[in-house]
Amino acid sequence: MSDAAPSTPAKLDIKLILQKAIELNDFGYLLAHVPYAKFIGMKVERFGDELVFKLPAKDDNIGNPVLPALHGGVIAGFMEMSAIVQLMVFMQTPKVPKIVDFSIDYLRAGYHKDSFAECIITRQGRRVANVSINCWQTNRKQMIATARAHFLIE
């Protein structure tokens, strides 16, 4: 029996991953390093200075099989992760922003189809950033959820 400590996974260098994603102009590269984003199937596309996040229809994300509708926690996690990536990309943070507060309003059922989110950084201070997140499926004007989040940034 070995007395050696169990091996720990190598620590990810967030700054290098973010720099490479910016160089490649492929923020999917950043999401590929986030286990939860991979688990729910999250994707991102850049259109000029805007990022649009996509949550493809996936059976594992269903919370109500009768409708079928997405699980509310999946919608909230998708929106929170979108806000974190938005902050990391546009503020080029060397660390992952820490969530301080997250408030979500579910407006209608999120059916088993592709969902999208966009984030607006409403206030950016030296230590705290506020982000507004909108999530929709077929029409941006018919949101399925909207959220506000506050993050501690370093």
UniProtKB/TrEMBL annotation:
Its EC number is 3.1.2.-. Residues 70-142 form the Thioesterase domain. GO terms for molecular function: hydrolase activity. It is an enzyme of class 3 (hydrolase). Keywords: Hydrolase. It comes from the Bacteria. PANTHER family: 1,4-DIHYDROXY-2-NAPHTHOYL-COA THIOESTERASE 1, THIOESTERASE DOMAIN-CONTAINING PROTEIN. This is PaaI family thioesterase. It comes from Shewanella youngdeokensis.
